[in-house]
């Protein structure tokens, strides 16, 4: 258990970096809500790709010290896959983009909730990772339930989601750092 706590606290920068990227992405989405679909696709693709790469690096680098490192790997691979898909299909319709974002958010959220459950006995503040996961799932479900929302609404929803999730990850990172 002490080894897991040391590993987690030594790598507090992983959720910090993910949180900072999410907050920056959220501010951009809120500042320019009338973005064209192409720009929105590229912003989402860049966010998902960077988030995925950081998660994969963290998973691979510490796979020998974290029991369920593969949860981070799954989260990262999903982010990379969805990020790359958006770059290869820039002319995608708003509805298909919405499905990509919803699927990515739901699967990432499930991975984060599972990771939080694993960490509940090892660290204090694991609920922040669980919160980020639950918010991701709720965000994805909301996109599926209300697909008729316009791009302006989608941009605001994405921005708010990214800001809240990013702040939760940043707070988690500093809690991990203090271990």
Automatic annotation (TrEMBL):
The chain crosses the membrane at residues 12-32, 38-57, 69-89, 95-115, 127-148, 154-174. Pfam families: DUF308 (PF03729). InterPro entries: Acid_resist_chaperone_HdeD, DUF308_memb. Keywords: Membrane, Transmembrane, Transmembrane helix. Signal peptide: none annotated. PANTHER family: PROTEIN HDED. This is HdeD family acid-resistance protein. It comes from Rubrivirga litoralis. The lineage of its organism: Bacteria, Pseudomonadati, Rhodothermota, Rhodothermia, Rhodothermales.
